[in-house]
Amino acid sequence: MEEIKITDLSSASPREVADKIIDILDYKDAKGIKLLHVEEKTILADYFVLCSNTQLRSYAGELEYKMGLCNRPPRTIEGYNEAGWIVLDFHSVIVHIFNKETRTFYNLEKLWEAATEEDISAQLRKKD
Q1: Between residues 80 and 71, which one has the greater pLDDT?
Q2: 53: helix, strand or coil
C-alpha cells in the first residue's frame, strides 16, 4: 500500500485541503467518508468532511500529524476527550469524525442536506 505523499498545503485551495484530508482518512480505512460543500450555506467553512470509525482518537491524531507535516495543522480540535465525536477545524475545512451511534444520532448529512455532496468515489481506494 502506497504511503500518503506529504505536500506543502500552506497556500492550497479549500478543495485541495479537503482532498488531502480525504486521502489521509481513506488510507486509514475510515468508513462512510463524505464531502459536503457548504460554502454557500454557512460562514463556518467551505467544506465539511464526515467519516466514522471506532478509533476516533487514532484518526484525529493521524490527521493532525499528517496535515501538520503538510504545513496545514488544525486550528482547533474539539471532543478529543469525548467518546463519540471529534471535530478538527482546518480553517476552510471542518472534519467531523464520529463513532457510528453518534453519527446516526446527529445525522449531519440530513442537517446540512441543502449543501452539495461532492462525488469523491473516484478518489477513494477500492475496498475488497
Answers
A1: 71
A2: coil
